[in-house]
Specification:
With 244 residues, the protein is mainly alpha-helical. The protein is 68% helix and 4% strand. A hairpin with a 2-residue loop joins strand 2 and strand 3.
């Protein structure tokens, strides 16, 4: 039991906080659910409190909030164009949810829900289905020309169309695995090197320095993974709006 408790993977264990069942379905409120709720509350507090004064000369907090809006607005402008304005709230919400989820997971005794493939896959699947519906509504049957690149000879269609379909259907997998794998690997590595500090005692100064540096790197990765998730969502949305 002690070995399992100190395992680098113990930090990813889902724990029931409020057991609940709906028929045969386990709907328990878990540590993962708690961190998701805290993430939503943290993002809401960050935005509402930061903009409560709405000053013409913003303070530091308001400046950070405004910069986050401008950052995503510019990202969408560069990747989607003017047609993407209607989807700004969706992209901004995804970015802030993933970012704050990653950052809260860095706190001691916290839980990183983005390190679970089931969470990241559901988010990625939602993005995939949403973009596909947008494409079908906008282009109708013309959407299926997406799987046949323009200018390609028709005799290449039997080869290229299956490849394009497989590539398209793999989007939620690649989007979810990228976020999940990076957060899982980073937190596991931190736990492993932190264990060396306690085991080596005085000689653990070297792993301690490495853990400090790795922690700083993890904060950078937390932001980068939120950015990557958002920009890939923008690229999928751009494909949905403009096809090729």
């Amino acid at each position: 039991m002690s070995a399992e408790k100190h395992s680098p993977l113990a930090q990813f264990e889902i724990k029931q906080l409020i057991p609940m069942r709906i028929g045969d379905f386990d709907a328990s409120f878990t540590n993962s659910s708690l961190l998701m709720v805290l993430t939503v509350l943290s993002v809401s507090a960050f935005l509402i409190l930061g903009m409560r004064k709405n000053a013409h000369i913003p303070g530091r907090w308001q400046s950070v909030v405004e910069l986050s809006f401008v950052f995503i607005a510019n990202l969408m402008k560069d990747t989607v164009g003017s047609e993407g304005r209607a989807y700004f709230p969706f992209i901004f919400t995804i970015f802030m949810f993933v970012l704050f989820g990653n950052l809260l997971g860095m706190m001691p005794y916290s839980f990183t829900f983005t390190s679970h493939i089931v969470v990241t896959f559901v988010m990625a699947l939602f993005v995939f289905i949403g973009c596909t519906i947008i494409a079908l509504i906008k282009h109708k049957m013309h959407f299926f020309t997406f799987f046949m690149p323009p200018g390609v000879p028709m005799y290449m269609a039997p080869l290229l169309i299956p490849i394009e379909i497989i590539s398209y259907l793999s989007r939620p997998i690649s989007l979810s695995v990228r976020l999940f794998a990076n957060m899982l690997a980073g937190h596991t590595l931190l736990k492993v090197f932190a264990g060396f500090i306690m085991a080596l005692g005085v000689a653990g100064i070297a792993p301690f320095v490495f853990v400090v540096a790795l922690t700083g790197l993890e904060f950078v990765i937390a932001f980068l993974q939120a950015y990557v998730f958002a920009i890939l969502t923008c690229l999928y949305l751009n494909d949905a709006l403009h096809l090729h």
